[in-house]
Chemotaxis protein CheX (Selenomonas ruminantium), 212 residues
Amino acid sequence: MISNFSIVQCIFNRDQYTPEEMRRILLEAEQDESSAAKLLADDAMDINPVRTAVLLAMGNNYPNQELHYASYMEMFMTAMKTMLHTEAVVERFPCEEDEEQPCYATSQRLSGDISFTAGLIASEPVYLKLAERYSEEELPEMDEMAKDCLEEFINVLNGMFSVSLGEQNIETDLELPRFGQNVILHGSNQLRLRVHSAVGSFQVVMATDEFF
């Protein structure tokens, strides 16, 4: 069973560090996780810190999506570490600002017993860094390989989420990933969350239909 515990998310939830300071902490934690553990007081322990952050961001505005959105973000943040080898934390407030252009979005819809779409949007430098972390190759410019890398990442992640839903007797089918540039976000029941990572910040977007 995969643990949803995250030392760096616990630290971020304490609201004592700026995003710039957190990026330094994340970079150091990638080299030595004990460096982050030293910053965490015993009384600040939360065994599900990502879920805590997401539920705070959602408030009472998403009553029918609460469990799916929180569970997806827990899986996403775990995948950041296991698949992209990148430490990251998620904000406790909905994201309202747009990404610096040019920016790129990758999403995928799950249809069936529920309708759920999830993906990410990032400025070009961050999008490329995320693609590099996934491919473990240098990607100096935006091209088909960078696009394909993050489409594959989202497809694998959402496939795992679909399996998890199936274990709850919620059957879903994966549609093909979508890609867009400088998109306007407009999904139903849309939740945008700012993720700060060691390679920069970006948004994870979840909705009940396509959001671009």
